[in-house]
């Protein structure tokens, strides 16, 4: 009987832990002091590899001055129509930008099926652990030929 109680309790705890929703805490005050600029590029120029011709180039600018911490992008979600793509790998995946006036990066993977107008949300983390979320809507594809 004791074994049955322990097993039942273990199952209940496992279900509760698996259902718990750990929410990321974003620093909205810090995010409000930053500006997001985005370009959605469709490069139609001849390429030597089979990579997607579409990519997202983005810049984060502090409201004033330069960055006081290093930052890195941890995720980018792009959506158009009913399609949503989450990107976790970027051209630069290390912390950088401390003392700089701009943080620049690119996302290239999984964008080929997106339409010509997208919405994006980018999550960044600082080297001290602060997380921010920045979004932009209605970004028009720019065709490069």
User: Which shape, going by the Cα principal axes?
Assistant: globular
Helix content: 10-25%
Poorly predicted ranges (pLDDT <50, ≥5 residues)?
none
Written as H for each helix and E for each strand, in order along the chain, the element string is HHEEEEEEE
N-C termini distance: 74 Å
Biggest sheet strand line-up: 4-3-6-7-1-2-5
Treating each run of at least 4 consecutive H or I residues as one helix, how many helices? 2
How would a textbook summarize the main sheet?
A: 7 strands, mixed
Q: What amount of the residues lies in strands?
A: 35-45%
Radius of gyration: 20 Å
What is the averaged pLDDT score? 86
Structural class: alpha+beta
Compact description:
By secondary structure, the protein is α+β, with helices and mostly antiparallel strands.
Features of the shown structure:
145 residues; alpha+beta; 7-stranded mixed sheet; 2 helices
Sequence-ordered SSE layout with sheet pairings:
Blueprint: H1 2-19, H2 28-31, E1 34-43, E2 54-62, E3 71-80, E4 83-87, E5 103-107, E6 117-126, E7 131-144
Q: Could you please describe the fold and organization of this structure?
A:
There is one protein chain. With 145 residues, the protein is an alpha+beta fold. The protein contains two helices and seven strands; from the N terminus they run ααβββββββ. It has helices spanning 2-19, 28-31, and strands spanning 34-43, 54-62, 71-80, 83-87, 103-107, 117-126, 131-144. A seven-stranded mixed β-sheet has the order 4-3-6-7-1-2-5. The protein starts with a helix and ends with a strand. The model has no long low-confidence stretch (mean pLDDT 86).
